[in-house]
Amino acid sequence: MMKNQQQSWIWIGGVFAILIGLSACETESTPEAKKTDDPNVIIHELNDPKRINPPVSTSANATYIESNIFEGLLSIDLQTLEFLPLLAVARPTIKEPEEGPFAGGMSLSYEIRPEASWDDGSPITGYDYLFTIKAIKNPLVDAQNLRPYMDFIDSIYVNPEAPKQFVIFSRKRYMLAEAFSGYNIMPKYAYDKNDYLSKVSLSQLNDTSAQVKAALLEDDNLKAFADYFNAIETGQDPERVVGSGPYRIGEWQQDVRIVLERKKDWWGDKLADTDLAKVMENEADKAEIESIKAFPPKIIYRVIPNKSTAVTAMKDESIDLMKGIEARKFKELSKDPYYSEVFRLESPTQFAYYTIGFNFNDPRLQDTKVRRALAHLVNRDRIIENLFYGMGTKINGPIHPKKRYYSKEIPDIPFDLEKAAALLKEAGWEDTDGDGVLDKEINGARSAMNLRYLVNAESKERRKIGLLIQEAAKKIGVNIEITPLAFEVYLDNANNRKFDLIALAWAQAPTEDDLKQIWHSASTVQGGGNRLDYKNPEVDSLIDNLRITLDRKKRDAMYKELQQILYKDQANIFLIAPDSRLAIHSRFSTAETTVVRPGYYERYFTIPAPTALQAH
Amino acid sequence: MFQYLIKRVLLFVPTFFIISVLVFILSRVVPGDPVAANLSEHSAEGTLSAEMVASEEAYLRLSQKMGLDKPIFYFSLQTAAYPDTLYRISPARQRDMLRGLTRYVGNWPKVVAYYNELKSFRADLTRLIQPKRLSAKTRTTFRTIAANISRLLTLPTHNDIKPRLDSLQAAMQSPGLQVLQPSFKKVSASFEQMMANRKPLAHLIPKIHWYGWDNQYHNWMTGFFQGDFGQSYTTDYPVEKLIGSRLYWTLILNLISLVIVFGLSIPLGVYSAIWHQEGTQHFNIISWLPAKQVGIAGGLRFVFAQLLRFLVLSFFILSILGIFWLLPLSIKLGLGLLGLAYMLQIYMLPIFLPKDSRARRFIGRWAWLAVMAVLFLLPPLVSLALIGGACGLWIGQGKRANHKGSLRLTKRGLSLKGSYIDNLFTLLVFLLYSLPSFWIGTLLVVYTTTSGGIVDWFPTQGVMSIDIAADASWWYRFQDVAAHLTLPVFCLTYGALAVISRQMRRGMLDVIQSDYILTARAKGVSKHKVIWKHTFRNALMPILALSAGILPGMLAGSVAIENIFNIPGMGMLVLASINSGDWPVVLTILMFAAILTIMSSLLADILTKWLNPRVNFK
Lengths: 616, 618
Known about the structure:
heterodimer, A: 616 residues, alpha+beta, 6-stranded mixed β-sheet, 4-stranded mixed β-sheet, 23 helices, 23 strands, globular, B: 618 residues, mainly alpha, two-stranded antiparallel sheet, 21 helices, 67% helix, elongated
């Protein structure tokens, strides 16, 4: 019996030896992409965009997808971040009238390109623009997110002789007027077949008196329009989603994929032909014409909610582009010879940053020295190295280093425990009761340096940042308690100021930063973005002035001053701007990445012609 | 029986009711306010008090649309300190504030007086003051006041109120803001009043209030029974439409899995028990060799048998260790085929034929060829064969030979047995059973679906190729879908397969050893009849009890599997809905799961009764 058993184990061992030997004989195949000439782009999305209807859609990826279907007056140059005319012939002429009904305000005159037309061949006119603005301002339309940005539009004059020319009037000056005025235009003929909105004037919609507002909510035309416009079908039915962009929805399988098809008769194609001569002459025009292009015959957005499944799908080349790859995974992929060959791994910086906020209502944190001391506890190099694998940039203020008016004079606040301890001591914090935690008498009561760090549980990075600080803080007698909460609860706590320190992340626009939402004392109210209750009259007046200053040079100086004040106040612990982590199939070798979210422009993706053909 | 059924069905009513109340109440006490989540809170400028009032109106409109402005349940059970009408306060944050204050104060009229004063103060703020006319400094103060008021409206703890009121008092001294003082005095007075008139004893008196039929639960439940499951919070879609579009793939996935699980595990279990009992002779692949035990032929046969064992064993061991997948395709296929052919022809086919018939001998001889032919057409099945083979050989454990661990020469041929094989495959089955399917699923996706993995045999994810043409032939589509579903179906089935076949075998063995089986055999009932009529029916009881839980269990399992393989089914929907707090969808799916569980246990009972008339439910 024993013998038999032994024999079989020997055999098994033999099999191993032979088979392992066999497998070693297999030659390593050189990495090679399966796809080489497919011009269609397949992009990974974590979730379904739910609806494609620019004013109403709320998901971030809807905005990106919409940019291929709808067009605004202006677009943004992906490298210089300057505005480029898209539907407009040129950037608007901005005037600052000193008399008339809009004295002290501003006007923006636009002209829409003569070639620009809708799918049915009718020209895009100022009336379409007026319609779009009315739709947004209709209080029954679910455009709460967008409406405040369009507040500045008080009146629109469309030239009845030449309806492609129109002027936007505002009673106030606003630095972002140009940016917001360039918003997507939607076709009146497709979205308002019954002319409901023609029966309500823009001035009625702008009226702030309570009676008019109440009457508007009961208005039958507005109701009928909103019913159609808000309907989910209006944002999903390929027949109903109509824009002037190069793509239309070909197919939409909920939660599976959206296929965008290139229009055969897109107006932009005509432009490229007629303006070719012009292109040769002027560099600026060249950038403009280059921007009005769309190459892939199909853009497919494939929904895969699970990130690791998506990475595998990417490896299988069943998606061509993935964004937001986890930092660790990204590093792994870049080391793998196979994938670094088939995919281009890019990590352009992006307009977003992580910070830790203080609760300014807390008497302990009202002392600038304490705040500075806490800032010295953060080892940002280690955060970038360990949590983001080197893919991030340190920031010292709310302005991204890529911006024109970023202040380089602001010094780094280094990781320095001794300095932190010294500052706390200077501020009167000492461990008098010997429990290892610093304390101090404030307003007659002894309070200890126990700080609650609020973080949303979903963000691994922000939680780990908390751990790093906790570890450092412990050494100098500051006790940090990390409280991870589900996002909704986290937000509720933040809104009710139930925190001492809070992990925050902000996304920034590629246009000028309007800092009012986060730093102005007016935003400390319910629903405002200033959840720290940071109030500084100097900052308030700077922000207010910034917003109404149209001169860029003056603005730049003010921005720099503002950054200086925020640094002096230690209004926040500014951490880092994380890089976006993209993988793009290597066959799109010319695809550029950009700092503008999502970091790429899929419609410029193209496969370079084979060199042999070029030679002919 | 009929009586029992009626009783069972009647019992479902309270069960269903309790489940529905539980999930409903749970969905309502989960933190987070669905109305606020749907209303955008982040405006560009922050919200000043006038806009705050407007947004409260918008909130009310939305909560009416969502049906959340009604009492939650038919009645409330609380202390006398709380009012019956708290649900009418909107938004939810202010409701929470009032509830919190009442908990401390216990005197609702005073609390509500304070609340009303706060609100009228806020109204005065916009009525009396024009921020534009104020100096910059006063404007900042004014904003602080506005911010403090909005905070006061949502602050549930009385300790925090006093300091805020004090700071407001100070702010009220600023020039231009004095007009606010009278209405502010009313606020502080009402606060003092409230704190002075605490009635904590009111909390000792319980109170039940009947709200009537127009409540959230009732509306939801009546809607549910009329087929109106409400509207999804996140997409505005009717829930039934959302679920309908997702049900398809989940059903397909689970139906295929069910068929495979029961179709494979029951015969496997039955026959393994029978062989165990019979002590066992049967055909195997080498039975075509001359049936002589001695001489050259016998020696050859011995060598061949050893070789065969060597191959079969190596196949399974290697595959367990994963090295199998590193081999060149030809060896993989060869080993896989041998394993499958061996198990199929030995254990499956001859069973259906009478002993010593020509047909049985013929099949015993050539079945492996047929099996190979099938396998060459369907290479992806090789991985399933792994498990099939494992189960097949595990059956061998029943055939305990006299000489443990030896190769036994019998009258009719060689059979492969021995306790170590036995143990090995018992281990394998338990290993399979204990491996969580989400882990195996992830491993399979990583290693068998991309050219960077070990092999690239299966599609990575989804249910269909993305570039499949709309006019592709039915057969082409079928192949595509089948390829996509192979791995998910495998992940859904292997666990249940192991459990049920094992349970079946156990059940058969228990019954087959009983006296009445012996009696039946002794009085000349045919073997077939004994097995299928007497043994099988009785052995099926535990399986039925098990299977009541299998269907709901598979639905739960498909939550993980659907997410790994990105199959747009109910599992993915329910996970996404929970994450986004889309309660109408979650509730509906949960209720369907509950109904399914109830129904399958009822079905199991009926089948039990039908199979075994002796069962007495009384």
